[in-house]
């Protein structure tokens, strides 16, 4: 495989327009998390270094990035989306400069470059969660790296508990919108000094999940004959790692949440900030327990079992979506 060093990134910002570089001194160098662990803040230049490293390792120039959640094979390889990627080149996170490493037991930690169908993609097999101890901005570092690599569309997948009483275990939920619960408490991946080279200080979020992609996803669900298990709803992310109490779930239900998870929202905010188009997909892995009479308890094993049960369908669905989204992207940017 040709791994020649390609022209390094030399851009003023990720969207190609010139902006003033923010004063570096405005960025706090190190942030300490609640466990006392120190996290070095990254700069734009550091992420350009990371992206150039990756570009030197692979000839693949992805326009679509996929984050594989617990339901899409971040814990196993066999039959996973990552395994479906052809001409694959896997780069472990620990080999990538400035990248965090996955700490969830059993979780993969690698970037997979290659092709889904004939579309060049990069997939994260294993993401970073807040509950692992990372600040949100660090969880989202790979999204910005993807942007620097040239990724225009992000497909963020996750496993989630179903709150909507019409949802069944194994359903897929197209994310229509999210509620940034952690943001309500002031915890936001964009918190801190803004670097205009990524995006504006105050980004809008009312079109977070691209309407066109959601429409396509519903059409594809029909074509694949899975429309009976494909729903559309509102996702929220809580910090985890514990699953929710009955009272918490009832509160979330009241405010219009359909599915609860521990990821995605901050990644989507980061992606929209740098003007990426976003599609979100949740695999409903468990029914949220909203009554004190119910005996069931959420558990991670069930999440993984349902992920395995649905991986074939998810893989086919996401692969087809990648193909359709790329056609839309070409039509917009011939
Ligand atoms: O990465 P995702 O959001 O799919 O993972 C969720 C959150 C926890 O890691 C796990 C809970 O079982 O699923
Ligand atoms: N927070 C949360 N995350 C999940 N991931 C999979 N199921 C759940 C759930 O019920 N709650």
From TrEMBL:
The keyword Nucleotide-binding does not apply. Residues 63-322 form the Nucleoside phosphorylase domain. It catalyses: 2'-deoxyguanosine + phosphate = 2-deoxy-alpha-D-ribose 1-phosphate + guanine; guanosine + phosphate = alpha-D-ribose 1-phosphate + guanine; 2'-deoxyinosine + phosphate = 2-deoxy-alpha-D-ribose 1-phosphate + hypoxanthine; inosine + phosphate = alpha-D-ribose 1-phosphate + hypoxanthine. It comes from the Eukaryota. Its EC number is 2.4.2.1. NCBIfam families: PNPH (TIGR01700), PNPH-PUNA-XAPA (TIGR01697), PRK08202.1 (NF006054). Pathway: Purine metabolism; purine nucleoside salvage. This is Purine nucleoside phosphorylase. Keywords: Glycosyltransferase, Transferase. It holds the Pfam family PNP_UDP_1. It comes from Vanessa tameamea (Kamehameha butterfly). Belongs to the PNP/MTAP phosphorylase family.
């Amino acid at each position: 495989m040709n791994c020649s060093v390609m022209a390094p990134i030399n851009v003023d910002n990720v969207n190609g327009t010139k902006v003033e570089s923010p004063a570096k001194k405005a960025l706090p160098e190190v942030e300490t998390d609640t466990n006392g662990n120190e996290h070095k803040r990254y700069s734009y230049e550091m992420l350009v270094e990371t992206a150039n490293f990756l570009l030197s390792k692979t000839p693949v120039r992805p326009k679509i990035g996929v984050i594989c959640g617990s339901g899409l094979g971040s814990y196993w390889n066999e039959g996973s989306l990552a395994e479906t990627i052809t001409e694959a080149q896997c780069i472990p996170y620990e080999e990538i400069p400035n990248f965090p490493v996955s700490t969830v037991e059993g979780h993969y930690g690698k970037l997979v470059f290659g092709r889904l169908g004939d579309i060049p993609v990069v997939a994260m097999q294993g993401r970073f969660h807040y509950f692992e101890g990372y600040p949100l901005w660090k969880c989202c570092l790979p999204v910005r790296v993807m942007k620097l690599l040239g990724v225009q569309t992000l497909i963020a997948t996750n496993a989630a508990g179903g709150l909507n009483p019409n949802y069944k275990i194994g359903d897929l939920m197209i994310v229509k919108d999210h509620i940034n619960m952690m943001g309500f408490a002031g915890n936001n991946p964009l918190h801190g000094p803004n670097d205009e080279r990524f995006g504006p200080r105050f980004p809008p979020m009312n079109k977070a999940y691209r309407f066109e992609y959601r429409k396509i996803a519903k059409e594809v669900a029909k074509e694949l004959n899975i429309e009976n298990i494909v729903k559309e709803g509102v996702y929220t992310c809580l910090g985890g790692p514990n699953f929710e109490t009955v009272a918490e779930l009832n509160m979330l239900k009241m405010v219009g949440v359909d599915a609860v998870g521990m990821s995605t929202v901050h990644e989507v905010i980061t992606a929209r900030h740098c003007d990426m188009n976003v599609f979100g997909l949740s695999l409903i892995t468990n029914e949220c327990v909203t009554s004190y009479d119910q005996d069931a308890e959420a558990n991670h094993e069930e999440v993984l079992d349902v992920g395995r049960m649905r991986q074939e369908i998810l893989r086919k669905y996401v692969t087809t979506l990648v193909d359709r989204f790329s056609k839309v992207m070409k039509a917009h940017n011939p």
